[in-house]
């Protein structure tokens, strides 16, 4: 059980790291689209929009920030890869089926024991009730034992 918890902790940690990676990716796309200037990439396609210089970063700063964002993505991807590699190998399907079958049998056994215990409790309750009724009915006479 403790081992399963640590696996769940790793899975939760992996989910958190994937969420962080998606956040980094989203921030990267936002930065790249918001702080870049429009450059002509083909002579046949003219630039149709111009940004004010205060709306985009200088090419050197943009390049440095872009490299930093790429490094952040790489580091996060490597962390995720490490977490994936640390996950246990999945249990073979037949072994899972056998384990589930054993758990079902244990559940059935426990249920049968519970039913027997309830029946014993009801039987004891009935005997005690009869005994007390007999005692009250024969308050003046001798008490008979009920079996």
Structure description:
There is one protein chain. With 147 residues, the chain is mainly alpha-helical. It is 72% helix and 0% strand. The protein is built from three helices and no strands. α1 packs antiparallel against α2. The radius of gyration is 37 Å and the shape is elongated. It starts with a helix and ends in a 10-residue tail after the last helix.
Q: Based on the structure, what is the oligomeric state of the protein chains?
A: single chain
Order of helical and strand elements: HHH
Radius of gyration, taken over Cα atoms and rounded to an integer in Å: 37 Å
Residue stretches low in confidence (pLDDT < 50, at least 5 long) are none
What key attributes describe this structure?
147 residues; mainly alpha; nucleus; Mediator of RNA polymerase II transcription subunit 21
Can you summarize this structure?
By secondary structure, this protein is mostly helical.
Write the layout of secondary structure elements.
Layout: H1 2-34, H2 59-86, H3 93-137
GO cellular component, one term: mediator complex
Subcellular location: Nucleus
Keywords: Activator, Coiled coil, Nucleus, Transcription, Transcription regulation
């Amino acid at each position: 059980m403790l081992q399963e918890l640590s696996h769940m902790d790793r899975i939760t940690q992996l989910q958190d790291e994937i969420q962080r990676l998606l956040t980094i990716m989203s921030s990267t796309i936002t930065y790249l689209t918001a702080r870049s200037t429009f450059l002509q990439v083909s002579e046949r396609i003219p630039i149709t929009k111009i940004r004010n210089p205060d709306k985009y970063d200088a090419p050197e700063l943009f390049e440095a920030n872009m490299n930093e964002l790429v490094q952040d993505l790489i580091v996060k991807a490597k962390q995720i890869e490490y977490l994936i590699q640390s996950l246990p190998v999945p249990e073979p399907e037949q072994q899972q089926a056998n384990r589930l079958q054993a758990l079902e049998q244990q559940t059935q056994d426990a249920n049968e024991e519970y039913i027997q215990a309830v029946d014993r409790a009801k039987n004891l309750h009935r005997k005690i009730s009869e005994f007390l009724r007999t005692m009250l009915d024969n308050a003046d006479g001798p008490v008979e034992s009920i079996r």
